[in-house]
Amino acid sequence: MKNRNEAVISFVILHYGDLSVTEQCVRSILEMDQQENIRIVVMDNDVDRPETERQKLSEKYQGMERLQVLRVEENGGFSYANNLGYRYAREVQNAGFIIVANNDIEFPQKDFPQRLYESYEKQRAHVLGPDIIRQGTGEHQNPLDTRLRTKEETRRTIRSNRLGLRLYPVLFPLLSFQMRRMERQQTTVRLAQSERYAKTQTQIIPFGACLIFTPAFIKQEKKAFAPETRFFYEEYLLARRCREKAYRIVYDPSMRVFHESGTATKRSYRNEYRRLRFVMERTVEACEIYLVQKGIPENSDTRESNI
After folding, report:
1. Is 136 left (phi over 0), alpha (psi -120 to 50) or beta?
2. DSSP three-state, residue 106
3. Range scoring the smallest mean pLDDT among 45-59, 121-135, 158-172
């Protein structure tokens, strides 16, 4: 690997939905220091968009030497598209660090590259998670969790979602109300516990909106996410995989990003009825994939889960 101050940092940005959101994310990266070390891969995951719409993204960044737009042609979801971008960054751009981020992430720190180099020198982590601050509420979204979900919890999630889907037309008002209430409760808890997010934390479940894969991970792994889910639970699968291989995951609040939470899904499914159904269906799929993995605890006496 090159000297830490020369290692290439590749930003893999998953584009889906609003082009202006992606533009804002890319702009924040282009305003960073040490541009000579920065590469950007924009993964066009808008597979259902008309050709004329997809062409706008390619034309927007045409001719930029350090920015590549890659099209995803198969609707494989979050993990699949990001794995394509990760592989390009790893094999073509020879990246030392690969940052996989949603397009609704902004990077406000101009010295982010230097902070990243210093964090890796200090932590020697395989995966780093920055402080992810939700715009509008100010809540800290990282870490996502403090422990792996147990098989018992995952089975319960599958059962409840399947029941909800069977009775969806009747239960939709109740399900929608409960989801909004849970989101408000989680925001309240996170804001009340804001002091805990000022501390470095290890072996957590990192929030998937922005993940940093370091040289220690990239050297060993050809994929960022394995096995692949279309949506959801990719963080728990990544954490299980890291623990199985004795990889270090570290939350480092010295790096900070802003997140316009859920932008892609909300704008793609403006109809709340369709959006909630989509979330429930994809959650069942992801939970079933998670269940078959090794190293998942059957149950746990620890009640602390989402923070």
Report:
1. left
2. strand
3. 45-59
Would you put residue 227 in left (φ > 0), alpha (ψ -120 to 50) or beta?
beta
Place of tokens 């109300």: 177
Of 175, 178, 161, 138, give the one whose Cα is nearest residue 261: 138
Distance of CA 272 to the CA centre of its chain: 22
Rounded CA separation 140/191 (Å): 7
Place of tokens 């959650």: 283
| pLDDT tens track for 136-162 | 889 999 999 999 999 999 999 999 999
- Two tokens at 102? 């949603």
Tell me if 102 sits within 8 A of 264, measured CB to CB.
yes
**CA-to-CA distance for 130 and 112, rounded, in angstroms?**
10
The residues pairing with 212 across neighbouring beta strands, listed in sequence order, are 99, 128
Q: Which two tokens stand for residue 168?
A: 């969806």
Q: Which residues contact 259 (CB under 8 A, 6 or more apart)?
A: 102, 104, 105, 106, 132, 133, 134, 135, 141, 209, 210
Q: Which helix (H) or strand (E) holds 280?
A: helix 272-291
Q: Tell me which residue of 98, 72, 47 sits closest to 210, measured CA to CA.
A: 98
CA distance 259 to 307: 17
